Structure formats: structure tokens, C-alpha cells
Amino acid sequence: MKLLKNKEIRTAVILCGGRGTRLGSITKKIPKSLVEIKGKPIIWYILNILKKNKFNHFILPIGYKGDQIKNYLEKKIFKNFNIKIVPTGINTPIAKRIFTIKKYIKSENFLLLNGDAIFDFNLDKIYKDHIKSKKTFITFLGSESILPYGTIVLSKGLVKNFERDVIFNAVKIANKYDNIAHIYSGMAILKNEILNENIKNIENFESVLYPKIIRKYKCKFQKFSGFWHSIDNIKDVKILKNDKSKKIKINNLLKKLK
Fold first, then answer.
1. What is the CATH number of the domain that holds 214?
2. Pairing between strand 218-223 and 136-142?
3. Which domain covers residue 162, as residue numbers?
4. pLDDT at 189 over 60
5. Residues β-bridged to residue 147
């Protein structure tokens, strides 16, 4: 891998090895990160917006149909991207994928994210703020989302309305009256030294490692304002294609990245 000279290396690890089974027939032929939105694969959006935010070193642990991802990223449009593609097995747990690629991470702090979301917000500022807070080991990133259930709106104990598809960013945890749970976007900035923990055989990276780190070290939550849309199922794809406000945001993002 060619190292960057006279420039801060800023690594992003993009997880794109899963099967994406909730996308049904779409991912029987292609991996989820190659699903196209407005003629561009999800991974195209991710790499370009990360580059706009001054990330300049990309590691992709590939698995399911990983050859297709590799072939796509070998196109000329990515010749100025510093990309390391690492085969990590088809059914490999996330923790083992990260363990496999950790030796390639070059920056003291790195971004870890899923390869199935399109976003546009000031990630550069959040990354700089994380670095300034030298004692922070993880900065978790969160955003708003749509609650896909019917909700009863209360005010002072009185029913005021019934609404569907409510936009929310936090919820109260049942039976824990002082605890508020915020939406995690699947994106986090981590100190590299966290990977010195014994992660190789962890079955669930997030639910096992993150609580352990939170107990031991200082961690932060950063809510960002901007566009973020996770593509977990067929409905999420249709929303980007049919929802008026989402279509406008995608069109604006395309103009920004071209």
C-alpha cells in the first residue's frame, strides 16, 4: 500500500462483508454495498463523502460476493483513493473481520462504519473534536430516524394526536426513568489502541466490546445534523426512490459529489 506523505493519514474502516439478507432478491446477485441509488452504488456515495470530509485511507473487509466489490473499486474513478481491500471470509463475525484488518489501520484514531448507509454531514468537524478530546476513546455518532409504528401523542397526560412515521432521535428506556437511549448510526470514531483488546473471538462486536470500553474509558455521543439514511431492507430503498424530501437530498448530494 502506498503511504501518504506530508499529510495526516485519516483511516476509515468500511464494513461491507455481510449478506444483506433483508434486501431479499436484490442481494442474491450483488452485495449490499453495490445496491444502486440514483445510478450510483452505496459504496460510491460513502467513499466520496468520506473523501470530502478529508478521509484519505480506506480499508474494506470484504466477504459475501466480495470479488464484485473489489472489481468495482478497481475502476479508474477510484484511482486517487487509497483503498485497501481485505478478504475476511463469507460468514465471519464483525469482530474477527476487524481483528483481521487492524494491522492496516494507520491513524491513531479511525472511523468505523457500515457499508450500507448514505449520509451527508460535517464529519470532518466531529473527527477533529474527537481528536481534541484526547481522553475520549470512542465518539458514537447518532441521528434522527423514522419510527415505523403508529404513535399516540400525549401532552400533560392527555391524548393529543395519533401519528405514523414520527421522526425521533431518542427514546426513554422502559423501567429506567432516568435513562434516555439515542439512535446509533452505526458510525463511531475509535482510538486505535482499543483494538489491543481481545476481540478476535467476540461473537457480537458492538454488544460485547462497546459496553466493556464504556465501563473502562471515557466515551462520547455526538448527534449530527444532516442527511443519513440506512439501507437495511427493500422498504429503505423504496423510500430513497419515492419520498420527495429524500429524493431532493440525494439529488443535492449527487451534485455535491460530482
1. 3.90.550.10
2. parallel
3. 144-182
4. yes
5. 166
Q: Mean pLDDT, the chain, as a whole number?
A: 91
CA atoms within 13 A of residue 211's CA, in its CB half-sphere: 4
pLDDT tens sequence across 212-227? 999 999 999 999 989 9
Q: Check whether 4 has a pLDDT greater than 70.
A: no
Q: Per residue in 124-168, pLDDT tens?
A: 999 999 999 989 999 999 988 877 789 998 888 899 999 988 888
In a shared domain, residues 102 and 212: yes
Which residue type occupies 99? F
Tell me: do 202 and 242 sit in the same domain. Answer: yes
d(CA 79, CA 231): 27
Return the percentage of the chain with pLDDT > 70, whole number: 97
Q: Grid coordinates in use for 183?
A: 439512535
Kindly give the pairing relationship between strand 166-168 and strand 145-147: antiparallel
127 and 178 in one domain?
no
Q: Are residues 155 and 86 in the same domain?
A: no
